[in-house]
Amino acid sequence: MVRKRKTAHLDVLLDGYCICAKAEGKSTRTIEAVTSAIRYFCDFLERENISTDILKVGVSDLRAFIQYLQGKNKYDRHPYNYEKDQKLSPYTINCYVRSIRAFWGWLLSEELIEHNPMTRVRPPKTPYRLIPILSDREIQALISKINRSTAVGYRDYVIILTLLDSGMRVGELVGLKTDDIDFDEGLMRVVGKGSKERMVPFGARVAKELWKYKAMYRPETESPVCRNFFLTREGRPLNANRVEKRMSIYKNKAGISGKRCSPHMLRHASATRFLKCGGDPFTLQKILGHTKLDMTRHYVSQVDMDIKASHRLHSPVDNMQLPITRRSSKIKGV
To answer: Per the domain annotation, does 318 fall within a domain?
Structure first.
């Protein structure tokens, strides 16, 4: 039975979703994505004079919204950015659709609707594209531009090595506490998406640099209750935006162009290098904190693309001393 309620309009029920999502421990990004998608969908319905009552919104309305998004330019009606002569990407549209379906799933779980019609709408297919991974030379160039003689520079150096060795997300890294790092076991306790904890290993080289940062370069905390491992110059917890900006500075100094150079790109680089060094996808799945192996298989595909380049260097025939074939002036029959 559907529960009786005073109103069933999207804008009112969205507040209830946010309260429930926070209580369930959903990540801030997930809540923001669903909130943004529902508000956008609601605005579309109102402009088209379509009811925003959840019992009246159906599959055809969501499909009409998808078609609207497919014809929309980037930053159209955006309050801060200029509109671009470029359509929304399939990835953006896919995210909107999945977020709306997740909201209707919540409506069903809260018994505000009897069935979820949005499960009949498939998100648009997204084209598979390879992520350009930072090469060893580019990573070395990036590191070479860090002034490790300063406390801030040494901290940035350790952060880049830690991200590259562990494959953790930047949000997980800045959330590390001093007692999360077990130097004896070579493990870090990481809090990932959905507040899920996992143990992430790190190598001997990173262990040495982490210890050196803690013993010699880490400043005193501004607050006695602060236990964050990586700190700003003032002794405050470091945030993800600061790490992003620091990496952008080093990218420009290193002259890296044509590729993104961010903490998340180091996560990609870490995953592909782990597989190239003989690591298996199942272990990588646990290290990265992926809930499904399908997410990890993306990196396997990425590594497979190196087969051609590797074969070019190690071709069995190209590397054999074969007799020279002499040209004949006349081709004889067999």
So the answer is: no
